Amino acid sequence: MLTVVHEENEAHKHVPAGVGGSLLDELVRDGARQMLAAALQAEVAAYIEQFADQLDADGRRLVVRNGSHAAREVATAAGAVPVQAPRVNDKRIDEVTGQRLRFASAILPAWARKSPQVADVLPLLYLHGLSSGDFAPALEQFCGSAAGLSPATITRLTGQWQDEADAFGRRSLRDVDYVYVWVDGIHLKVRLEQDKVCLLVMIGVRADGHKELIALADGFRESSESWADLLRDCKRRGMTAPVLAAGDGALGFWRAVRDVFPDTKEQRCWFHKIGNVLAALPKSAHPNAKKALAEIYNAEDKTHAKAAARAFAAEYGTKWPKAAAKITDDLDVLLAFYDYPAEHWVHLRTTNPIESTFATVRLRQRVTKGPGSRAAGIAMAFKLIESAQARWRMVNAPHLVALVRAGVPFTNGKRVERPDQSDVQPNAA
Q1: Could you tell me the pTM of the whole model?
Q2: E-strand spans in 231-387?
Q3: Distance of alpha carbon 162 from alpha carbon 122, whole angstroms
Q4: Count of CA atoms in the C-beta half-sphere (13 A) of 306
């Protein structure tokens, strides 16, 4: 992307004096078009390369180029420019939802009709490893001018964002009720330090069904102590114990939440669990193992899910006991979502809100230098989530979230109208 911008800037140097404004405007628009086109091509090439080893039964790639989308005009500061985004044919199936996966451009989403705003783009570029001196050429066409994008200006802007992130971390939580939470640790390489930054991320669902960022903190390798410090801080600021937390089983979060919010129930992330199971199996066993795992988390009720888990253990336990144990040892917390509204299952089975927000950072193939300081890395991640949060959708059937908080019991996704108290325990609030 930067190479194209530099070439376009070189072209401007050779525009003869006295060239009319209309021609110069056209050159600028053409530069913006070239920049967008090159960036989109590079993004698609990296996506396809990432999954180059995933083949179908006939040995053909599951992710390939498939021509281009119809041209559309995108508004930039240089004016409207025509963009023809490359098309990707992705035949992979989501291991959790069972639906076809789709390529989604982070540079130019399918619905976008204008170029990204500086507030959206800068954090992503920073987390990808660009230095402050790279921002001006990277954003010149989108902003219409490089004026105001000097390294000093960027430094002041990142300082302002650090102040905003600090204020966010001190705000009161007394007036907000988070019923569900997703937690994860995101690792970023810091340019000036040897260790990576481990960002402890908590995203929640309010009682009205809206998703929002709860907390973002600098942790130490996702340790229990770091998570406990964060949870205790949230509790001091007025946070009520969530009903259910979803996260990776490897997190130190679970020991911490049992200490700080002992009534919060646990749901282990199936996205992470599937990866752990497959890592304990030979590649030749992956296709059938994925199908067998899908039979568990897509089962119509908990009884059928447990039966599918027993079948998985019987099929794989003899040859690969470690793989089978990863399911059987954690089965209760893997199937916790069945005790909540069926409309919410798709949200509760994984930590997708966190995964999808940081996907463009995590999927970057080339190792970059990363942000220049821990504080800057946290601030940029905060702005990235803040930008993404504006596009988050409410959970399905949002009116049911308040019922979960009220302790209304659900069995296999259905509300229990007249529960037998000896058999059905209400969800802890």
Answers
A1: 0.69
A2: 244-247, 265-268
A3: 14
A4: 8
